[in-house]
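Whether sequence alone determines local backbone shape is best considered at the level of individual chains. The sequence in question and its structure tokens are set out directly beneath this paragraph.

===
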Amino acid sequence: MTQAEPTDLQHRPKASVIISVYKDTEALKAMLDALDRQTEKDFEIIITEDCESEEMDTFLTEYRKRPNFHHLTQPDDGWRKTLAENRAIDSARSDYLLFLDGDCIPDRNFVALHLAKAESGRFLTGRRVYLGPFFSRLLRKWPWLVRVIENRLIFFLLLIPMHLDKVRSYEVGLSSRFMHRLRGKKPVGIIGCNFSCYKKDMLAINGYNEDLPGVGAEDSDLQWRFEGLGMSTKAVKFLIPVYHLYHEHKRLDYEVNLKIINKNRKLNAFICKNGIRKL
């Protein structure tokens, strides 16, 4: 397994951006290009891979030479994103954690605005624009095009083509403080591709529950356990969008996850036993 090693013990980055990935190097390239353009530069990147892909290892060769860039792997033994996330959380050098999925391209202000809105005891919840097949192909081929859709005027002019491409939640891309004040402060749930929190708050609930074997509901489980320990959501909808590249969705063993979560809720088990620490 590849382990993250601190490169500069004298400086702790302002944020740790944790990115869960599985083999899709093309999408990750688009995401890393967007992270290179962030207005806030003082952050580390932790790629946490739910396998040990040779293609991913080769792709990341040059990136690993950068300071504040780390790559974690684990054997490909089925879907184990919860384990991958926990390993990244444990290795993070910053006090503040930002979460992305490897198929979501962040806005250029993603890191800066999450840090600006951060509050101890609260977890920030953003939203994503679900791009359709056509726009996703364009961004995979030419990642720099995200600069075009970040422009609110151009994004507005593209609404009809986006609608024809079956883009969903495109209103999230019309980011503005006005829209946030008008419609964006209502609490929304955690989605793993756009949320943030203090590391100490994540450690308080012991991270993701690794007992969950399936895909789905692991983020709502996080939120329920945060709230059970007195923490609260802080919505940043319309302020910090990410752009989700199209792919088919699979929810393997989703119902199994729900049974485990519901059982834990009846027990008020806010701190999971099989998390970052094994209790």
Notes: Residues 254-266 form the longest helix (13 residues). The beta strands are 15-21, 43-49, 69-72, 96-101, 104-106, 122-125, 128-130, 195-198, 232-235, 242-244.
